[in-house]
Backbone:
């Protein structure tokens, strides 16, 4: 085997390896893009969930305020009933 054949074989192998590396890099880029898309979708979902939890938290705050008002009204009613009962009792 002469040097010309060796150089031809080595050049062919190097070219094949280079093409394979470039092809695999392109495939890795595709996979990375897909991962980026998934991360973006997860971030969007997380933002939606945070917004929904904020709405639910606001509703619970409203309910808590209403319950506090009802509690205060019940205390006033109880106080009035106790006064009425103590005034009417001999």
Residues:
């Amino acid at each position: 085997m002469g040097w010309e054949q060796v150089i031809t074989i080595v050049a062919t192998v190097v070219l094949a390896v280079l093409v394979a590396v470039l092809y695999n890099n392109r495939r890795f880029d595709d996979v990375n893009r897909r991962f980026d898309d998934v991360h973006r979708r997860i971030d969007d979902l997380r933002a939606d969930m945070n917004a929904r939890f904020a709405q639910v938290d606001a509703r619970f705050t409203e309910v808590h305020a209403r319950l506090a008002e009802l509690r205060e009204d019940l205390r006033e009613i109880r106080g009035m009933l106790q006064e009425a009962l103590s005034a009417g009792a001999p």
